[in-house]
Amino acid sequence: MKQFFKYFLASGLAYLIFGIIFLFISIAIVSSMFNKGPKPIIVKNNSVLHLEFDGLVGELSHSQPQFNGEGFDVVETTGFKDIIDAVDYAKTDDKIKGIYLDISMLSAGLATAEEIRNSLKRFKESGKFVVAYSELYTKGGYYMASLADEIYLYPTGLMEWTGIGTSRMFFKNTLEKLDVEMQIIRGSNNKFKSAVEPYFLEKMSESNRLQTERFINSFWDHILTEVSVAREISKDELNLIADSLKIRTAQDAVDLKLITALKYKDEVVDIVRTKLELKDKDQLNVMPIKKYVKYAARKRVVYEKGPQNVAVVYANGQIMSGEGSFENIGSITTAKHIKEARENDSIKAVVLRVNSPGGSALASDVIWREVMLTKKVKPVVVSMGNLAASGGYYISCGADRIFAQPNTITGSIGVFATIPNIKGMLNNKLGVTIDYAQTNKHANLMSITKPLTEEQKKIIQEGVDNIYDDFITKVSKGRGISKEMVDSIGQGRVWTGIDAKEINLVDEIGGLNDAIDYAAKLAELENVSIMTLPKPKENPFEEILAALDNDKEEEEPELQLKGGRLSNELIQKLFNYMERLEHLSTHPEDQMQARMPYEISFY
User: Fold this and answer.
1) Do the beta carbons of residue 374 and residue 341 sit within 8 Å?
2) With contact defined as beta carbons under 8 Å apart, do 272 and 51 qualify?
3) CATH topology of 47-161+247-296 equal to that of 305-433+448-550+569-602?
4) Which residues, in sequence order, are bridge partners of residue 593?
5) 47-161+247-296 has which fold?
6) What is the pLDDT of residues 122-178, one digit of tens each?
7) Which pairs with CB-CB distance under 8 Å and at least 24 residues apart come from 512-515?
8) Domain boundaries defined on the chain
9) Between vectors from CA 47 to CA 42 and to CA 51, what angle results, nearest 5°?
10) Which residues is 133 bridged to in the sheet?
């Protein structure tokens, strides 16, 4: 009996202790979920703003839990607007004396880098210093750093200055080996719509090569122009340096006056201390950009008067039917956000921030309709990011005003349909046969296990041509130019922001804040207070609860492409293509695509 009570009491005590621990953990979780009181952030006098890029610079700041195999990591993405707003605030903050720019790990698109670089330029014009340091300057990284007062490179570091190139893979031979037939139907006159070329060609078509060389040369010329002004080196000399591969060592970059000097990181810190006039015993006050972003945001709220009156709706990623996320534009989600802004009486203008290569033509049309309904009652202005192509341009074309960066990729006005036929692979590689029973001869029209008949191809071709005609009609009305003109600059061709302005596809060269200012002007607003949609969930537990509440049965792939964990670029590209094909095979409503001709990798 004593033994019984002994074990009973021990078990009871164990359960009691476990219960108490579980209670405290639950309280901590609930407290973190509902405690909205932010900790105060203190910026000390004579501080330097440390602008360090240690992760992806995205469209919108958000925290997202990611399972690492054992538990959850909280992955933070910093939105570019938060960065530029923080830098703009810092130029008027007496406590911030300068910026220490560390871009060794910069990961941002060209238009995003342009936005941040312009904010650094404004900061420098205020009379404060900008010092740049890196162990490796990529072309994009150096472009951002080029406006700094002083640019330092690690003594054994590297600097890339070789021009811009882009590459893409072609899967024609792979698909033939697998006995997979890609049934491609493009608009009759969409010769530049080359998104599907990897499926039936072994290299770029001449029309694709023409447009590719056009826009990468436009990008390079813009970079040369800006770097030439910042470093006082002629464009011809900069081109010669690239063509001759003159930068082979870190010292070469110094000799060519692209780099101020070679310094170790501790030596650059000493230079910053000197600029702040610190003595040996004085502490260097460093304010990390991620913390300052929150500080500046809270300060701005204090000075913003009245209710939120301008809504900024973010449309980021490929366009598809259904619900969206921070990485994808879902027609239901984005249309809901635009409608919410339209029906909110305190919102006087809407800015649609588009960063998308396109996607489903149907989903694009659903979003376009909400833009047009909103335009009837309040101004709608579009700000284009790195990409606003095909479907991304579709949802933009009806706005009152369109802003793009010089290195935005836009246009790509065209349509195609992709229907894979894997019957040969199933039969010849796996020994699987397929049989059908159907009430009518076209009941299995979109099946991926049988080839299309000539009659079916003709019907789908008519559908693609009708969608293309509807696309250019909407662009024509939205931009106030003839359909014939739209068709001549359409046909699936992509354009840079600079070229797009020349042919009237966009109105202004400028960034997101320029678009916001213009929207406020149209709405005759004296003070601007921003509502951001979707509203980011700062607390990662909110993301977990949202994920648990999601009734979709899709499993996250083992290869965490969105988190950037996969280092093998070849596998990543193949996975992206296969993921897209899988989506198209299960979502027939999205098989008519208004998508950018290709995915670009700059090197």
Assistant:
1) yes
2) no
3) yes
4) 360, 416
5) 2-enoyl-CoA Hydratase; Chain A, domain 1 (3.90.226)
6) 999 999 999 999 999 988 899 999 999 999 999 999 999 999 988 888 888 988 888
7) 512/80, 512/81, 512/84, 512/115, 512/312, 512/351, 512/353, 512/383, 512/385, 512/403, 513/81, 513/84, 513/85, 513/88, 514/383, 514/403, 515/351, 515/353, 515/381, 515/382, 515/383, 515/401, 515/403
8) 47-161+247-296, 305-433+448-550+569-602
9) 95
10) 102, 152
Task: Give me the pLDDT at residue 552, please.
Answer: 39
Q: Which architecture does CATH list for 305-433+448-550+569-602?
A: Alpha-Beta Complex (3.90)
What is the rounded radius of gyration, in angstroms, for the C-alpha atoms of the chain? 27
Burial of 110 from C-beta contacts in 10 A (0-12 / 13-18 / 19+) = buried
Question: Which token pair is 20?
Answer: 């108490």
Give the three-state DSSP class for 39. Answer: coil
Cis previous bond, 420, omega within 30: no
Q: Is the distance from CB of 164 to CB of 216 less than 8 angstroms?
A: yes
Token readout for 401 is 């005003």
Position 601 pLDDT exceeds 80: no
Across 72-127, where does the E strand assignment appear? 72-79, 96-102
- The Cα 518–Cα 512 span in angstroms is 10
Sign of CA dihedral 107, 108, 109, 110: negative
One-letter identity of residue 34: F
Contacts 24+ apart (CB under 8 A), 68-74: 72/540, 72/544, 74/540
> Is 6 designated active site?
no
One-letter amino acid at 228 equals S
- Single-letter code of the amino acid located at 164: I
Instruction: Kindly tell me if the per-residue pLDDT of 118 is higher than 90.
Output: yes
Q: Which of 81, 124, 193, 573 is catalytic?
A: 193
Q: Is the pLDDT of residue 572 over 50?
A: no
| Helical residues (DSSP H) of 407-558, grouped into ranges | 423-424, 454-479, 483-489, 497-502, 512-522, 540-549
Report the SS3 class of residue 591. coil
Is the model's pLDDT at 551 over the cut of 80?
no
Closest among 381, 373, 366 to 333, alpha carbons compared: 366
Has 36 been annotated as catalytic? Answer: no
Q: What is the pLDDT of residues 348-404, one digit of tens each?
A: 999 999 999 998 889 999 999 999 999 999 999 999 999 999 999 999 999 999 999
CA–CA dist 107, 248 (Å, integer)? 23
Closest Cα to residue 157, out of 133, 190, 173, 181?
133
Q: How high does pLDDT run on average in the chain?
A: 82
CB distance 147 to 130 below 8 Å: yes
Catalytic residue among 146, 390, 396, 412: 390
Task: Find the Cα–Cα–Cα–Cα dihedral 453, 454, 456, 459, rounded to 10°.
Answer: 180
Contact yes or no for 577/171 (Cβ under 8 A): yes
pTM score, two decimals?
0.79
